[in-house]
Fold these 4 entries.
Entry 1:
Amino acid sequence: QVQLVESGGGLVQAGGSLTLSCAASGSIFSINAVGWYRQAPGKQRELVAQITRDDRRNYKDSVKGRFTISRDNAKNTAYLQMSSLKPEDTAVYYCQMDIRITITSYSYWGQGTQVTVSS
């Protein structure tokens, strides 16, 4: 069984910074792509940033230059560094990992962590 545990959310003032972590545990052979998503109240979940196993990254336009996604394959952990935060970044943030279990890959999600940016 695989579990993803997120941490690092909280309340921050506009212009501040937060770093989210997502640690995977269990019977993991390898982790392929990792994504960070967010969902604001009344809105659909959206992809914020994604990183492949070979460190190719892509970002939602509104976070480019402010957010950085990274991963530590040895620790099965992914990170989202967020800076210059804006009130519109307020949302529940979820990590998603494509994890290979033996010969099959599955998509796993974290429980979500609240990020609130005050103006």
Entry 2:
Amino acid sequence: QVQLVESGGGLVQPGGSLRLSCAASGNIRRINDMGWYRQAPGKQRELVASITSGGITTYQDSVKGRTTISRDNTKNTVYLQMNSLKPEDTAVYYCKAGIVAAVTGDYWGQGTQVTVSS
């Protein structure tokens, strides 16, 4: 059974940094696109950044220049390095991956809370 497990969230002061990780496990044949989404209270879930299997990245405009998405295909892991964090970055962050496995499709992690506050 395929699972995505996120880690690295927490409480950070404005201007601080966090690095989120998301590891996929199970009987995985291939992972295609991977991405990070976030959902703030009362708002819809939105894409923060994504990365293809070949390393092509896209970013939401509000995080460009402050955020880097990367992946380690040998570890089936995607990372999100966030710098210069702002209170408006506060949200639950979810990773998503397109996985080829016994059941092929998009898989989601359980979410990790990021709170930016002084």
Entry 3:
Amino acid sequence: QVQFVESGGGFVQPGGSLNLSCVASGSSFSLYGLAWHRQVPGKQRELVAVATNRHTTEYADSVKGRFTISRDYAKNTVDLQMTNLKPEDTAVYYCNVDDPPRWGADGYWGQGTQVTVSA
């Protein structure tokens, strides 16, 4: 069974840093990008960063230059290093494939990890 387990969230002041980690299991994931998404209550889930199956990375404009995604293709883990955090980064962060509805993974969201950026 496909499963994503996120960890590493927390509370940080503006300008601070956090590292998130995700372990993906139940599939080889070699054909898919692994990604971090985030969601604020009342808003749609947003794609934040992708580590593609072609060993490239992609970022939402709002996090470019501040967030770095890294993926261990052998271990099926994906990390997100977040620096210069802003209050608008506050959200629950989830990992999944890059396009869950397209790849049939929309039913496999984990519990996510809360990131709160506040003074």
Entry 4:
Amino acid sequence: QVQLVESGGGLVQAGGSLRLSCASSGRILADYSMGWFRQAPGKERERLLGINWMGSRTLYTNSVKDRFTISRDNAKNTVVLQMNNLEPEDTAVYYCAADRGTMLSSTPDYWGQGTQVTVSS
């Protein structure tokens, strides 16, 4: 059984930064793509960024381009989302996800429990 555990959410002022981490346990996920989604109140879950085991990154949402970056450490089974220049519109629950294969699909195999990010204006 694979478990994904996020950490690093919280409250930040607009223009600030946060770093979210996701640690996976159970099976080794070195051949999985990993990434991040978010869901704001009243909105659908949104796919943000993905990274496969070779380090190839894919941006799925232009609103976070040049502000959010994704990285992973295969040896530690972790993936990190660095969020800079945060905006109130980034307020959401952020979810880590893992998906078998070279791309992060919209319906990944595994989800984390989510971590709240709140950006104040």
